[in-house]
């Protein structure tokens, strides 16, 4: 099958068909370009998505990624970033292996097509020129033949006429002979041109056109093969990244399988464990023996007017409050003491240990730097031309000072750490006292009972249902009178070392240098209860004040 023999008369249609083939190729190139743009856009969106959910450095989010579920999520984000990279690879390979290559090929194809059809038009023009020459010689031969016939008829007419002179007859005869000779010459010329045209026409239809059309056919077949190869490359580019994409997905699955719920639960314990022990049982306080009250309802409702003298034992109201509320409060304070005394024991120990570890790392870094400077100084001493050893003395002294400062800092935090680690095992009794284990009270009034119930903000203290109905009905009246109750006795004084802004419930603001009364010393949770004047009291961090207990205490104790 050859276009030269089968389509010898379809020059115009072949020209249109080959142009259509180039248009198809350019359409495929455009398709691949748009695919590469989509891959790049998709990769960019995936990278932005991964970046959006990455934890911010030095933020609370970064601390949350110690949990295995968060680590798995972080691994998923990293794998998605690699996944996006493979889509970028697809775009790059399609651009280099398909788009650029086909664009260059299209230019070559257009040039080759133009050359082939130019040769075809040239052959067409040549055969048309030969045809015109043939037609011209044919018309001339026909005209000369007619002229010869007319000259012959005129000669015969003149020869038959007796009135015509002999000279005229001879002239007519010569004219007839001349016309006849011209007809013979035109005949010979026409015959020659006809033979040459037939030869040219045979070569045109059997040699020139078949050769040109064969080239066009080969060109078109190469185009078809090329677009097929490009489609294979298109699929192969995708196929090449499938194993890597599979590894990314395997990485996500592996990260998901690494999630350990037990480990995460343990991390929650380590993160929030306070070190306190749960509160013990509250002892029953019998108020029936020393009751000095009337059965009338008026005596209870008028307690605001004639309030009896309140007697407090060793444990004041609000013993449950420091354990339940104060530790939560201390975690919300903005100003954190250097020794982390505002934190529960276990959390304080962890913070101090972390601080010691960080300081040791800084010491090691400074030590390595000092060793490097020392070695460089030794090199300068042995080879003075390389540098002046004295130029390193200032830097060496500065690094040495930094090491000494860090060591002192480490010793300070290690001392605090040793204190915490030494106090943790022996704090159970103190924690019990904080959690509300009251000393046996056998001589408190009915009002004390109502106050003790109010001292627990969450209402954890409840009276026995065996008490009289009058107390249950009038409990709210007693709750409204707590602001007027007898203040706790002062057990010492304190001086504010720093300014503290008490913005949370239960705290009190102090100014540096201010002297205040101490009504409850630190029970191991980092807070001291103080009073200003007679009506303003609250808690401040123990590390913010210098406490002096009165003579009834064992001695003055200073918290720094």
UniProtKB/TrEMBL annotation:
Residues 294-313, 449-468 are annotated as: Disordered. Residues 342-419 form the REM-1 domain. It comes from the Eukaryota. CDD domains: F-BAR_FBP17. Signal peptide: none annotated. The keyword tRNA-binding does not apply. Keywords: Cell membrane, Coiled coil, Cytoplasm, Endocytosis, Lipid-binding, Membrane, Phosphoprotein, SH3 domain. Residues 489-550 form the SH3 domain. Residues 1-264 form the F-BAR domain. It is found in: Cell membrane; Cytoplasm, Cell cortex. The keyword Nucleotide-binding does not apply. Pfam families: FCH (PF00611), HR1_TOCA (PF25610), SH3_1 (PF00018). Residues 155-186, 349-376 form a coiled coil. Gene3D superfamilies: 6.10.140.470, Arfaptin homology (AH) domain/BAR domain, SH3 Domains. Belongs to the FNBP1 family. PANTHER family: FCH AND DOUBLE SH3 DOMAINS PROTEIN, FORMIN-BINDING PROTEIN 1. This is Formin-binding protein 1 isoform X9. It comes from Microtus ochrogaster (Prairie vole).
